[in-house]
Fold this sequence. Notes:
- The chain has helices at 13-41, 46-53, 57-75, 89-102, 107-118, 124-133, 152-158.
- With 162 residues, the chain is an all-alpha fold.
Amino acid sequence: xxxxxxxxxxxxIISEVxxxxxxxENDTRVLNKLYVILDVLHDEPISEIIxxxxxxxGTAYNWIKQWNNGGIEGLxxxxxxxxxxxxxNEQLILLDEIIQKExxxxxxxxxxxxxxxFSVEYSIRSVExxxxxxxxxxxxxxxIYTKMPADAEEQLKKTPDI
Length: 162
């Protein structure tokens, strides 16, 4: 008996769902901030508010400052702050395939490939984060000394344990 699909998939559905989740997460953060502001407006002591909402005193005062500087809009995430990746999930999957196919080894090579294929600029550090997100790890190269004998590794293996 064939397994029935529970959800009809179409191109881009995963990124759409993830975008909506991000929007709602941001709305939830604003809602939490508004609850704190409401408690402040009701003259509750800050010590009670931070216990009630499980936040630090610094966070409470930051949210109050945001409120005083811009009202509800002041509590919302500013455009361009952190947030979304410049590449969609589909592009990340494609990038993963390109890295494997072309055997790209360094963040610099991946950065150049991203700029060429997707016309998106990233810093080297951001590319390293992307690669980590794609489950790639990187290590620092080890030094090979010029005066080292050609069979140094073999000699080291043959050295008796002391």
